[in-house]
Write a structure and sequence with these properties.
The complex is a heterodimer of chains A (about 150) and B (about 575). Chain A is α/β, with parallel strands linked by helices and about 150 residues long. Chain A is about 45% helix and about 25% strand. The interface between A and B is large, with 35 and 39 residues. β2 (about 35-40) of chain A pairs antiparallel with β8 of chain B.
Chain lengths: ~150, ~575
């Protein structure tokens, strides 16, 4: 399998780092080598947030090269405009799904899980591993709602 | 069954050190190194401490190694500057039990004031340097670092970079191996670095360097991969990963123990390939050494000394091209909604004084629309720079702004110096009860240890008085009150400290008050409310004021700016 490159982008507080963590964990549970890269620090203060997840047999670079993004998950219009050019020619831009999600999901806190549901349709990761990763990452009191939203987006 | 976890480089390093029998760790928070010490706090076997600053952290960690337990110091790259005094001499004295110095370098300055390359410290201090290229490798190399430290009786410099520190990957978790404490024996020739003893230790150190170089020659972690012999890359750290990505067929010499350089291995590799290219981030550290050895090699264009590398830049380097791509400006970071610092910066902007700032969240007060912070150099420099600004520009022309943790780090010395040298001026301590910028770590003024235990609490009022401040006042009110206090104290021919306590950092106190009421009919669109630079109140595309009630913490600093009654505090 060649390496799959997933780029999450948006702004601080949107749950982007959590979403990236979940997909990385799910892929690891399925036996893939994973590298996930982001920069901490200023992100917590409402600045831009970007997380790169690379999944494959043996992943080298922790960051995705420009023009090599297979799946782009943007959580913000401005950030989407800034990042869209990093997509591969035949890469998949999931921004329309995000806009749809904004209409469907009343609480923006769950949009990250919705987008993971959308992403899960494109990746060969077992449902068991997705569930395990969601359970590992999400606080127990919000888990049921998240599992429901994840399933609804699939 | 193998037990794999998704760990960051810092977590993997810390896990590896724990498995290697670590018993002591000291640090001062700083991105990208903060989470190393945080990881140790979960282990009962490790005495993990936040120190008041990096010099202190280094000394207590070195002391633990002297006392006979495996010990680690960690900080961000510029933190090592603060620790340089004990670091340089610890190379002479050596250690007793294993001692590793972790530096978190930040090429690209994701959250730092410079991008200094701390590999150079290894050469300067004459200590070995290890550099992992990934989290999984960080875990392996940290164990080697302790072995090298004890084998050669030397501190070992372990260099992480932001990309290695904050990348996560599958890392295998192992068991801890207990290491017996080494007895401490009184040995002045080793531990008392007076000139006569240090002279002998320097002779020893030069011999040690030759032995360490021999060791490095035979280290399998300095690995040669021979593939296409037309192109040979010499590389270290995360650059190795970029090389593998961009040139999977090239021959590679990957240095894991970069200093002392394994000269024979370098020669052996370079003699086997047609063209040698050195790929390294930041300074031409390896390149200069190869050139000094008389090896014909191609380094990166000088423009690539700035910022991080990536696979694309490796292609530029091989082709001899300069750097053409620079990071695009993203959304600027701002103080959080409800941040207790905001009111002070609104007040400072009105006073029009020069504000000597410091390192912390409040550095965010420098950018428009607040624009109320005018110098930032390093930790603690607000107080000291203010003392010269006031003496040269005029007593009422400048003030210092510093956070509680930074004041404990190195602001206290500046205050004593002000009192001693008769400085007249105002120091504002923004006390939000935590070390906020790095994710809310406790400090002496919070009275809680790294492990969350209660401890003696530093009383900021008492210490400021003891240091010689003529006036110390705690204020905790609106920006207007803070403004009047700044004016009152800058008018005095005295040394004053204003401690602003409006509330705790919103990361530790997540309580919220209701958002203010907004009356659109009264709004004159003067935008004084948005000038407080809060993400919860903003202009929409039509220039109308909008409140994001989800984000708003109800601090009412925006309400205090409105002169037309369009914003009203919710009761």
């Amino acid at each position: 399998m060649s390496t799959i490159n997933i780029l999450f982008c948006g702004t601080g507080g949107q749950g982007i780092l959590t979403a990236a963590e979940i997909v990385a964990l799910a892929a690891m549970y399925d036996g893939y080598h994973v590298k996930k890269s982001e920069v901490h620090g200023m992100a917590q203060r409402g600045g831009s947030v970007e997380s790169h997840v690379r999944i494959g047999k043996e992943v080298f670079s922790p960051i995705i090269e420009a023009g090599q993004v297979d799946y782009l998950l943007s959580f913000d219009k401005g950030e989407h405009e800034r990042m869209a050019e990093l997509l591969k020619k035949d890469g998949t831009d999931l921004y329309d799904d995000f806009v749809k999600g904004q209409e469907k999901i009343s609480n923006p806190k769950f949009l990250n899980t919705y987008m993971l549901g959308v992403l899960s349709k494109h990746l060969k990761i077992s449902d068991e591993s997705w569930q395990k990763a969601l359970k590992e990452t999400i606080k127990p009191q919000f888990l049921d709602k998240n599992l429901e939203i994840f399933a609804s987006a699939k | 069954m193998n037990n794999y976890k998704l760990l960051s480089g810092n977590e993997a390093l810390a896990q590896g050190a724990y498995e290697a029998g670590l018993k002591f760790a000291a640090s001062y928070p700083g991105t990208p190194a903060t989470d190393i010490l945080e990881y140790f706090t979960q282990f009962k076997e490790v005495d993990a401490q936040w120190s008041i600053n990096e010099k202190v952290a280094f000394e207590v960690a070195l002391g633990a190694a002297f006392a006979g337990v495996r010990s680690i110091y960690s900080s961000k790259h510029v933190g090592v500057n603060v620790a340089m005094d004990p670091l340089m001499t610890s190379a002479y004295s050596g250690i007793n039990a294993g001692f590793v110095i972790v530096t978190g370098d930040d090429p690209g300055m994701h959250s730092s004031q410079n991008e200094q390359d701390n590999r150079l410290i290894a050469k300067f201090a004459k200590i070995p340097l290890l550099e992992p290229s990934s989290p999984a490798e960080a875990k392996k190399l940290i164990k080697l670092a302790f072995e090298i430290s004890e084998k050669f009786d030397t501190p070992v410099l372990f260099r992480m970079t932001t990309r290695v520190a904050h990348t996560k990957e599958n890392v295998e978790i192992g068991e801890r191996t207990e290491v017996e404490n080494k007895p401490f024996e009184k040995n002045p020739r080793k531990y008392v670095m007076v000139p006569a003893n240090a002279y002998k230790k320097h002779i020893d150190l030069e011999e040690k360097l030759i032995k360490m170089q021999d060791f490095s020659e035979n280290l399998k972690e300095n690995s040669i991969e021979i593939n296409d012999k037309n192109l040979g890359m010499v590389t270290d750290s995360v650059s190795y990963m970029y090389v593998k990505e961009a040139y999977p067929n090239a021959s590679v010499l990957k240095l894991a123990m970069t200093f002392p350089f394994p000269d024979k291995k370098i020669k052996e590799f370079c003699s086997q390939v047609k063209k040698v290219v050195v790929v390294e981030e930041s300074e031409p550290f390896i390149e200069e050494h190869l050139l000094q050895m008389g090896i014909k090699c191609q380094g990166k264009h000088y423009t690539y000394r700035v910022g991080e590398l990536n696979p694309e830049s490796v292609r530029d380097i091989v082709e001899g091209k300069p750097k053409t791509s620079y990071p695009k400006a993203g959304r600027k970071p701002v103080l959080c909604p409800g941040c207790p610092h905001r009111a002070t910066f609104v007040a400072l902007r009105k006073t029009k004084v020069v504000v000597a700032g410091d390192i912390g969240c409040y550095t965010l007060g420098a950018t428009p629309p607040l624009s109320a912070l005018h110098t930032t150099v390093c930790m603690g420099s607000s107080v000291t720079i203010m003392s010269s600004l006031t003496s040269i520009l005029g007593r009422d022309k400048a003030v210092a702004v510093i956070g509680d943790s930074t004041f404990c780090h190195s602001g206290i010395e500046g205050l004593i110096n002000c009192a001693y040298n008769k400085t007249k001026g105002v120091i504002i301590i923004l006390d939000n009860g935590t070390t906020a910028m790095t994710g809310a770590q406790p400090n002496p003024a919070t009275g809680v240890t790294a492990k969350g235990e209660q401890t003696k609490r530093l009383d900021l009022v008492q210490i400021c008085k003891a240091c010689g401040a003529d006036n110390v006042e705690v204020v905790g009110d609106s920006s207007a009150v803070i403004e009047s206090k700044i004016k009152e104290y800058t008018a005095k021919d005295e040394l004053s400290v204003l401690i602003v306590r409006i509330g705790l950092c919103k990361m530790i106190d997540r309580s919220k008050k209701p958002a203010p009421k907004f009356f659109a009919d009264k709004c004159k669109k003067c935008y004084m409310c948005t000038s407080v630079d809060c993400p919860a109140i903003f202009k929409d595309e039509n220039g109308n004021i909008k409140l994001n009630e989800n984000l708003c913490a109800g601090c009412n600093v925006c309400v205090q700016q409105c002169r037309f009654g369009a914003l009203e505090e919710s009761k």
